[in-house]
Task: inverse folding
């Protein structure tokens, strides 16, 4: 099964200006619609985030999809005291060794392990902060010919990324029909069987 990398988070104040354009409600809606479209139809790969991991678990439960075959969660051991409780429910978490005392180096190590996977064919970026931009840079280094979808309407770093990738019309920048966007842009048919 082809894999799609998801880079998403809800921006917080004090970390750049990403929160100024971000709409947390739309970020969560877009993530939920992406997971609903792709779950069990493509492998979803992401780096654990306290706002995103519980949502992915919830959609797995709602759709009755065997998450151990449908998703792969990466976590840096640097954050082991902060993991959301949902991590314990995913049996396929890839824990990446931390660089002692170095948050940035630990994140880089985890991102390199996650984004160097051979099965990644696409990346989806929603909301986010500097991590979204860092993951975009790494993803395109490892997979220069892969498809990239930056979802602009929820704002954050993904909005900046979408603009840099040439999304300029107000209609495209404000499109909140996430269901249609993901099915069309990712080539996932609405009636495609879930594994």
Result:
């Amino acid at each position: 099964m082809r894999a799609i990398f998801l880079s998403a988070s809800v921006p917080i104040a004090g970390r750049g200006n990403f929160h100024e354009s971000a709409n947390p409600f739309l970020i969560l809606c877009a993530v939920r619609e992406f997971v609903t479209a792709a779950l069990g139809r493509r492998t979803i790969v992401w780096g654990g985030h306290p706002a995103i991991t519980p949502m992915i678990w919830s959609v797995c439960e709602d759709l009755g999809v065997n998450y151990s075959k449908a998703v792969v969660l990466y976590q840096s051991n640097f954050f082991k005291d902060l993991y959301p409780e949902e991590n314990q429910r995913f049996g396929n978490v890839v824990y990446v060794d931390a660089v002692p005392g170095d948050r940035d180096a630990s994140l880089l190590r985890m991102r390199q392990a996650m984004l160097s996977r051979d099965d990644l064919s696409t990346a989806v970026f929603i909301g986010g902060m500097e991590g979204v931009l860092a993951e975009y840079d790494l993803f395109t280094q490892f997979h220069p010919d892969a498809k990239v979808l930056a979802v602009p309407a929820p704002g954050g770093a993904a909005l900046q990324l979408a603009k840099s990738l040439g999304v300029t019309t107000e209609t495209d920048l404000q499109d909140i029909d996430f269901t249609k966007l993901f099915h069309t842009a990712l080539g996932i048919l609405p009636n495609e069987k879930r594994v």
Observations:
- The mean pLDDT is 90.
